[in-house]
Amino acid sequence: NVHKNCYRLICVSPCSPLPIEYLPDGITPNNISNDDSNSIMHDDRDLQWINNIDMVDIKSTSEPVFQTDKTDDSNDYDSPLHPYTDMLTNSFCFRLLKSFRYSKLSQSESHRLFDLIHSALPSPNNLPISINKLLQKLELNQNFFRKTNICLLCYKEISDENRVCLSCPTSNKNNIAAIYDSDVKSILCVLLEKIGDTIRVYKNDLILNNDTSGNLDIGFAYAYQNLLHRFSNENFITALMHLDGIGLCKSNKLKMWLLSFSIIELPAKLRYQKHNMVIVSIWVSSKEPIASVWLQKSIKKLEELKLTGVIVNDQTIKLKVLGITGDSPALKIALNFISHNGYYCCYFCYLRGIHQKQKRQYPYECLHQMRTVNSFAQDATAAEQLNRNEKGHLGVSIFSNIVDINFPYGIIVDYAHVSLLRHSKSIFIELYRRLTPYVRNIVDRALIHQPFPHFFHRQMRPFNDLSFVKATEIRNILFYGILPIFHKHVSSEILGHFAMFITALRLLHGKPIFGDRTSDIAGDLLTKYYKDFSLFYDGLENFVLHLHQHFKNQYEMFGAFSHLGSFGQEALIGYVGSNRTGTRFYGDLICKNYSIDFLLHHKMEKSNQFTKIVDGPFDQEFNFDFKNNSLFQLLHSVQCTCASLDSCLTAYRRCIINSQVYHSLQYKRRQKSVSYFVRYTSTAVPNSYLFDNCIVFDCEDYHIATPVSSYDEHD
Ligand SMILES: [Zn+2]
Ligand SMILES: [Zn+2]
Ligand SMILES: [Zn+2]
């Protein structure tokens, strides 16, 4: 059934509309740019900013000379900014800083704008004389990171002044790594003070195994429930470690690697918000990190947190570590394993792999021996002692000391990378390659014009440009684009085979549709898909395809894949990596800006409690014509006998359901989205809805109403 015209949003509801500022965090699309071309001239200013930030006495050069000097201890923060306003200094400063950070101004641009604002204010006023002083006053000048430079030839520390290692004659900037270890304890304290209550409430649900949403979030799956059982008399929060790398600059191949963790005891929606994830350490270098060199200090800090914990509100909260997740290159580093094209590269089983047409291939094998906790540890120790490759191990993983679910069981495959960015993408490219240029054109057009619910943030990408595609884009094409579009152009055998893969992932992605049988069904589909793979494709039986054989176990251990954080991690590292404006001193700026943002976010909301998201309609449409379609008359007459349709019904442009904003056609900025929403209140019984949260599609001769809940699975 073709939904030709989708109808307008009407909400007849007693709820009052919400102001626009009340929108949840995820609404605004994140503009992540990797552009390193701008503001080359700001280098010196950026460096100065870094040096000055903790030294209050050094004035920024942009400090205007005409400013009247204010003493630093003047306690004027709760007073108005100046005599002609009732805006408080404190709140103005917060908002100013937040705007500066939000618009990603370089430091020198911020200084310039700050000076301009300052010069236009009536005198006297309470605005601090420089941004540095402002940061100091708001107590946002805390840098959570400590920098260490390491020579990658001798692994010795080198001081910040020296640009090369003095004991290595061939040392140059390419074999130096900058490590930024965070003060995990302080970050956790700020975080727990802020979100401790949310954690307590959700943890209670986890302890009762009370999965109200039925989403099989990670905390309701076997691994975490097992932890709860083992440490039932301890007060703890649980970390899921994430390791990931990203390119910072195309010209010098500089890469940033990030070790962070998310907190399992936070509800999934909050867990992967960038401000709720804890950054443990950052590695900036053109060389790949060596975990034992990079994470030595950080792992010690984590061990300490596991032992002594942090004290928040007189309560000791210890840390547990559920496991580690990342893509194949990251897991190779974290687990001290050989790379994904070597023999025995699977961390879960002893699959050897074969050499075929200059490629390492891993064809389906019916029986393969699984690695166990004992064999994993033994092989790793042997590799370490004998300094050789032992069944894929190159040594003992630095994480093996801190994980509470022993390897290999504490390893979580990054599904966004393995299934979406690697396997699905290569199948897309292969299927596309088999089409004629004429059909490729048709397919690309169909993909671009496919409408989506607006919360997908982006439309589908044509296949002629998949180079910088995001995991979420691949997911959208996989779940919503491939089958409806390709069935006209590809043989049913090939598409039917691929459909097994899509169906299996669809099952593993979300809530267990078939209950306890969900993982079995998905597992069977994936096994069949893998088994028959060589009938349809040549030379694509790589390690990522093999990993799908372990997905059934992964789902049973860690729950629905959409809650495993790969998408959140993608956003976090993108945000952290883009958190710089100059072309040098990447790491320093990244850490500085992260610290400011983190504190700004958690302190800002502490002072302004307007972040609560209330379900209901908002953004009223006053000029809506209810007589333009007989549908409204019809629906109104079911409920009400009055004659004045326009005064009886109220139209809204947007509505929040389950913290998700839905748009109507009346909402002009919705672009091509299709998330329309209609609901009708009963006049007899207040607060009860006649058509409970329905989406109405107005087709040519009829209407289709579908419940909003069927649009609920998008994250
Ligand atoms: Zn050296
Ligand atoms: Zn395996
Ligand atoms: Zn009426």
TrEMBL record:
<dbReference type="InterPro" id="IPR009667">
    <property type="entry name" value="DUF1258"/>
</dbReference>
<protein>
    <submittedName>
        <fullName>Uncharacterized protein</fullName>
    </submittedName>
</protein>
<dbReference type="Pfam" id="PF06869">
    <property type="entry name" value="DUF1258"/>
</dbReference>
